[in-house]
Structure prediction request, 386 residues.
Amino acid sequence: MELNSIKDAFDRVTKKQKVSYSKSREIIEQIGQEIEQALSRLQSDQDSTSPTDHKLVLSELKAKLKEIAPLSQLEGAQKELNVTLSKYPKLLEKSLNPDISKAYRNVDFDTLTVNQIIASHFYREGQFDLGDCFVNESKEQGAASNKSPFLEMFHILEAMKSRNLEPALIWATNNHEQLKQNGSDIELKLHRLQFVETLQKKGRDEALKYARAFLAPFAVKYMAEIQKLMACLLWAEKLDSSPYAELVSSIHWDKLAEELTRQFCNLMGHSYESPLSVTIAAGVQGLPTLLKLMNVMTGKKQEWQTMKQLPVPVDLGREFQFHSIFVCPVSRDQGSEENPPMLLSCGHVLCKQSITKLSKNNSTRPFKCPYCPSEVEAGQCRQLYL
Prediction:
């Protein structure tokens, strides 16, 4: 999908539309001025002792309007707009409405897993009624197992939107050990935010009591952070204009809600991003390449269905790179424990099986690197670990 070409075409349409609008407005104003001037002359003639011939005024007005030629000018501007506008839907149709079924191939899916992913996506997005409806219609009651945890998460997030941290603090306390094992400091961040809220709404004394009760356990590991919060007590009534004003920024609430979602999903054994959303987003990026491939392979649908790997690379953004992988540039096989990537003495990397074939299974027999003039020996190659 060539979004740049679509944007350029859209810009051309809007430019022509602005020109047409300006031209139409200019002509209409010009006509209005001529008519007003004629009316003014006719009205002044009624009070004049030597009235002007009305027919002469109207004749002059007609001549001026003919000279302006509003119809031809409007038609010209509108015609340019229509030509540009007529091309735009065709470009959209071509770019944004392709027959994506060409890029489809028959794949055996685990229906239960797919249904669980879909139901989990609805629950994750807070669409609980829709999730329940899907579970009932798919008759996969086991897919509803994630509803309760996500209900709890949304209860916490909704409370945070109302500046209520109590549910979040209860959750963090109940999962203290697991969060600690994961190296998360979200519990401290929640208490820090609650401390600032207490200081602003209830004053210095209540904030100090809160710090002694809940911040003291973090003093050993996060002393600098605790000292910063204690300094805020000196600015109790004017924290907004203090050196620590950034602590009251609403951005901390947004960031903490995002981090809580991430940690909540982590404790559930789920990824932060919905697998369904990630899959669709990756598919959208890869679809143009697949469609181009299928246009080239027209008439070879059977070959497409049996193809074990794509003949062209499908480049996805870094956000879709979750694990380090290596694909041998010679065999096009993905590296594995049985066929690991090996570093040649010249600096290039091939899979072990490719090196074995090139060296004819002889660890001391030199062979030429496929990518440079160097000769290397299989015995000198070193395994790389991903």
